[in-house]
Request: fold
Amino acid sequence: MTDEQASIKCPGYQAQESICARLAERINAARTVSEKASAALELINAVQELLDCDEYAAGSIDCQCCRGVSVLRKEAAELVLKMGTISQQFGSPGM
Reply:
């Protein structure tokens, strides 16, 4: 399967995809809890824009894929925030 066949054909998704990918890289590269939390909050806001899309059509496979990817990214970012909270409660400087 080529990248073109595998991509979600939506201008809104395409615009947010690079932002989300960059934020995921920042989370993974962050060395401190606060750096991870900051990027995770930005990621949540970025995917929320996709989840709130006015153009969402339940019957569209592109919309369903976009929604699925966005939900997973949001859940992952929320997990990073929860782990940061737990880490801070136990005095661990990093995750």
Summary: The two ends are 36 Å apart (CA to CA). DSSP finds four helices and no strands in the chain. The mean pLDDT is 88. The CA atoms of residues 40 and 70 lie 13 Å apart.
